[in-house]
Amino acid sequence: MLALSAQAAAWFLPFVLPICLWVAYTDMKSMRITNKAVVTLFAVFVVVGLIALPLDAYLWRYLHLGVALVAGMALNAGGVMGAGDAKFIAAAAPFIHLGDLRFVLALYAACLLAAYVAHRIVRATPIRRLAPDWDSWSAGKRFPMGLALGPTLAIYLGAGLAFGK
Hints:
Blueprint: H1 6-30, H2 35-52, H3 55-77, H4 83-92, H5 101-123, H6 146-163
């Protein structure tokens, strides 16, 4: 059972899922997670969070955003991740219940591994001709992290809907 309530997941998921898909698509297409996607995700939390969460939990979740943003900025400065990845993680952080952090990290590891393997396989096969203009195919060692970050948040909220308290 997840600490995230099924009710909160039910409120968040319909709004967050299209954004997560958009992030995965745009990151594969142009190797960028757009500010528009990040701001939209944050706006969903600002508005829907007021309905989905108790007020005290809603306000505390902004701390998640701040901590994730500082950590992401440090990782970006160190060259570990792109700025869009860091901003997306910060905007996604308020949706995650602190009690589910270990689960989310394990889920992210699984999504990252699956996304990396799938991307590299498709990049090396004729399937890539379905989207020949995507920048991620020719990005060398760089990887579109949105392909793992978006599904991680979407799957977490889906799991919260199914297994939340």
